[in-house]
Write a structure and sequence with these properties.
With 184 residues, this protein is an alpha/beta fold. It has a single domain, classed as 3-Layer(aba) Sandwich (Glutaredoxin). Helices cover 33% and strands 17% of the residues. Strand 1 and strand 2 form a beta hairpin. Helix 2 runs parallel beside helix 5.
């Protein structure tokens, strides 16, 4: 019995350690790291350009099934809050960072046309906001490394002062977190 207990405890600790390494080091209350990205119209932005706004920073990819299933929720939240009046912020914006452009362990592309896949997914999923970025480097994206992204979909809700106020919010949790910030 004692050996079984020690075995189960060891397995639990191992699983906890493995899962811990996939939790982003960026915590609620941290300042969101600044980054630069170029949108599909070749206009360059920095996260800091969005100070004064509520920002949902969403990490996804065209090849990611769970991301694509979550996209209608992101679209619905954007629709609900894009014209909302906020207590302390000017507006609500979504910045979508795609991790398209995967390579295998030998550096060979896993996607034949990552940019085309990315653009098609944006159109098909009706992700009609302006702020989409990707350097088409998959997990080697500088932005995903800066945010310590190890799984997608992942997101960060950032307030008007550039502070992370929510992480990996889905469905009702995302809606209610943004709703609390409105004047209504």
């Amino acid at each position: 019995m004692k050996k079984l207990f020690i075995f189960l405890l060891s397995i639990t600790l191992l699983i906890t350690l493995i899962n811990f390494q996939y939790i982003s080091k960026i915590k609620i209350g941290d300042k969101a790291p600044n980054f630069t990205f170029t949108n599909l119209k070749d206009k360059t932005f920095q996260l800091n350009d969005f100070k004064g706004n509520i920002v949902l920073l969403d990490f996804w990819a065209s090849w990611c099934g769970p991301c694509r299933k979550d996209n209608p929720n992101i679209v619905a939240v954007y629709e609900m809050f894009k014209n909302a009046k906020f207590k302390d912020a000017s507006s609500f914006e979504v910045i979508s960072i795609s991790l398209d452009g995967l390579e295998d362990r030998y550096g060979r592309p896993k996607q034949e046309n990552p940019k085309e896949d990315w653009i098609k997914a944006i159109k098909k999923d009706n992700l009609y906001w302006e702020y989409h970025g990707s350097n088409l480097k998959g997990w080697n994206s500088e932005i995903s490394k800066k945010y310590d992204i190890h799984s997608i979909p992942s997101n960060f809700l950032i307030n008007e002062n550039g502070i992370v106020i929510g992480k990996n919010l889905k469905g009702p949790a995302l809606y209610s977190s943004i709703k609390k910030l409105t004047e209504d």
